[in-house]
Amino acid sequence: MALITKAIRGTQDVLPGESHKWQYIEQTALSIARDFGFREMRTPVFEHTELFHRSVGENTDVVQKEMYTFDDKGGRSITLRPEGTAGAARALLEHGLNNEALPIKVAYITSCYRYEKPQAGRLREFHQFGVECFGTAAPQADAEVISLASHILKELGVTGVSLHINFIGCPACRAEYHKALKGYFESKKSELCHTCRDRLERNPMRILDCKSPVCSGIATDAPVMLDFLCNDCLKHFGSVKDCLDAAEIEYEIDSGIVRGLDYYTRTVFEFVSDALGSQAVVCGGGRYDGLIEELGGSHLPSLGFAMGLERILMVMEAKGVSFPEPPGCDVYFASMGYEATKRCFKMAVSLREGGVAAEFDTIGRGLKAQMKYADKIGARYTIVIGDNELYTGNARLKDMKTGEETDIKLDDSLYNVLFNKSIDRQLADVAKVLSTTTEVL
Ligand code: ATP
Ligand code: MG
């Protein structure tokens, strides 16, 4: 029985008291992305397993150890998405978006699934905000995507993050690098973990990303990609740094970043928080110039990033960021008797049509208990309706903060009364935005 009331290990519920934080993070990220020209895209939670084998890569930890893969009732191998890029790339090709004006810029919020060891900041179901920019090889696109991530983190108040960038080359210079890496690891083969010995033959770069302490210790002294870059790559990397400098985005070069997914090429980056201990990377991304071709499309250089939303929320909480209060109940109708309750229902319905958040008793409580409830839910005003109010058509509007009471009529003018008391949240928001915009101008 206990199983029924216990969530699966590594999954998390977002309770009503917390959901406004998620909405704030998601809306902020989507809206800033929109200002950069990235429009939202939604893809299914599961895809053909083969898609992830081809894109994420056979030799990655994600594919080898972490995917939720199963056969459906039709005998097809299905995988719950471990990340968002593969699905976005698949959708791009399936719907021919690559034939539209380039670059194609998409943003998404997705749940992701990885069978990892659950701990703080590491879950089996987690959420990402991500963007993909398909169809540009130019270095300014790299800087633009990095600046988008940086802008979102800043707006959310995710302070204490540093940007680490690295350049992991193109197929041309990588061949040389692979040779050098292979030579280095070959001499230490007997010390490597079982998986890495296999990786040595197939993709030695993956050893650099192994989480085993022995392998990562050996990897510290391995040759670095930056020493093997071809002229084109050197030029590209130089321009990316140049653009970041121009936009005054601070970064440090970190030759240890290889990223956990095979599709990355050239520029890769991570934003690392000072507040999260070992699960410190809040955002990771980079170029994947060969991915679309690998999936059967034409050559379409592209790039993107993904942020771990649970980790972002953890940093915001650790930094004491205050989240905008969710809108509460504007007016609560307390009623006495069946007829009065019916009238309250009617008034609540019509006020809501005008954008006022109204509630009434749907549980059959006595008046005292209703007032207590109105207080608990933080109702801004209350109106008590009984036989007398029904008969006269008059009632009293009580301000729950000040205790002040106003005589009101129970007719259409009620909306105007509430409106004049500036309950209209949208208007207040617009006024706020206008006042800050004027300051800037
Ligand atoms: P890590 O090195 O921490 O395992 P990763 O390189 O596997 O991260 P990516 O595939 O780049 O992560 O995913 C992008 C972001 O998603 C990460 O930077 C992180 O913020 C978040 N993330 C990744 N895996 C998890 C997880 N299991 N639980 C929560 N967040 C995660
Ligand atoms: Mg990982």
Inertia-based shape? elongated
Structural class, by secondary structure, is: alpha+beta
Which small-molecule ligands are present, each listed once? adenosine-5'-triphosphate, magnesium ion
Described by strand count, sense and barrel closure, the largest sheet is: 8 strands, mixed
Residues in helix, %: 25-40%
Radius of gyration: 28 Å
Low-pLDDT residue intervals, each spanning 5 or more residues: 437-441
CATH class of the largest domain: Alpha Beta
Number of DSSP-assigned strands: 16
Report the CATH architecture of the largest domain: 2-Layer Sandwich
Task: Describe, in short, the structure shown.
This protein is of the alpha+beta class and 441 residues long. The chain is built from 16 helices and 16 strands.
Write up what this structure looks like:
The chain is of the alpha+beta class and 441 residues long. It has 2 domains: 16-170 and 230-318, 2-Layer Sandwich (BirA Bifunctional Protein, domain 2), CATH 3.30.930.10; 331-436, Anticodon-binding domain (Rossmann fold), CATH 3.40.50.800. Helices cover 40% and strands 20% of the residues. It starts with 18 loop residues before the first helix and ends with a helix. The chain binds adenosine-5'-triphosphate (ATP) and magnesium ion (MG). Residues 83, 114, 116, 121-123, 126, 128, 260-261, 279, 281-284, 306, 308, 310-311 line the site of adenosine-5'-triphosphate (ATP). Residues 83, 114, 116, 121-123, 126, 128, 260-261, 279, 281-284, 306, 308, 310-311 line the site of adenosine-5'-triphosphate.
